[in-house]
Amino acid sequence: MIEALLYTPLENDAVSCALCAHRCKIANGKRGICQVRENRNGTLVSLVYGKLIAQHVDPIEKKPIFHMLPGSRSYSIATVGCNFKCRFCQNADIAQMPADHEGTIVGSDATPETIVADAIAKGCDSIAYTYTEPTVFFEFALDVARMAHADGLRNIFVTNGYMTSEALDILLPVLDAANVDLKSFSEDFYHQTCGARLAPVKETLKRMKKAGILVEVTTLVIPGRNDSKAELEAIARFLVEDLGPETPWHISRFHPTYRLTDCPPTPVDTLTRAREIGMAAGLRYVYIGNVPGGASGENTICPGCGNIVVNRFQYRSRTNLIDANHCAYCNHVIDGIF
Questions:
Q1: What is the per-residue pLDDT across 140-192, written as a single tens digit (0 to 9) for each?
Q2: Are residues 165 and 222 in the same domain?
Q3: DSSP 3-state assignment of 68?
Q4: Calpha distance 93→62 (Å, rounded)
Q5: Each residue of 25-58: pLDDT tens digit?
Q6: Alpha-carbon distance 163 to 169, whole Å?
């Protein structure tokens, strides 16, 4: 347990947290929405520093990050907690543990030194802060990321994009890539289904891109909730116009889970239609994910000649025909870090 970053003392030992866009006002003895930052007599502390609930070596494609070092390994870590309350949370058992179980926090002790050393020993090229929302374990992620960069590893945030500009400014110098969930293009969806707002997510995406971070975007397509033609077109248009046509868009299949079990799995036809919408809008790389046997939706296609330059199956790269960011067939530039 350490003192948190990014908070301001208020009257009566209350504090104002400036880590995420909720900007919680936290009374003495209480926690923020994330349930892992607690006010103790006017000092905000992180309850999850070095308390890892998950620690694995994954293919980088599983993040999903398709346009940085395909085929490499990413050392992936998480603590419990999240600043969203998504009804469809895919990792609710750990992300929503404190919220759903009276503040329960569990995890194995770790230090930045042991994380970085283990990542290097296991042949990883990057560290991913993932599985739950990494913003809520910001202090630990930042310490690990700084040490990782010093030792030549890249850093990846897999995030809902709800951090404040203050938090992002601190993180940017050691951040290489991010996969940001753009869950919908509707403020109502964000409010009713996630307990959050859309506008801060859009701002984070634009700030990351402006800073030169490799940004990939994931949208979980939920039948009847965010799968209309108009909404998918709006997302694609935002990606092209505000982030750039080189931005990879991952369209992921929904499966009933957590508190959203009354919706069926997303039809594959819907995902195919969403991909066509993205390509028609001008995106160069649109992927279909979370579909068993859907390998063709995972391949990277050269925008110049239409050949497969990275062949993938179940989030693993099998062949890579990119040479110094150029297609081996036609020499067209392939966007990313290869």
A1: 999 999 999 999 999 999 999 999 999 999 999 999 999 999 999 999 999 99
A2: yes
A3: strand
A4: 19
A5: 999 999 999 999 999 999 999 999 999 999 999 9
A6: 10
Total number of domains in the chain: 3
Closest to 167 (Cα-Cα) out of 192, 199, 204, 128: 204
Residue linked to tokens 């770790």: 110
The contacts of residue 250 (CB under 8 Å, 6+ apart) are 64, 66, 179, 216, 217, 218, 219, 287, 289
E strands in 142-182: 154-159, 177-181
- Whole-angstrom Cα distance, residue 135 to residue 178? 12
State the residue range of the domain holding 316: 299-338
- The model's pTM: 0.97
Q: Are residues 151 and 58 in the same domain?
A: yes
Q: Are residues 78 and 151 in the same domain?
A: yes
Cβ(132)–Cβ(78) below 8 Å: yes
| C-alpha span between 60 and 72 (Å, rounded) | 6
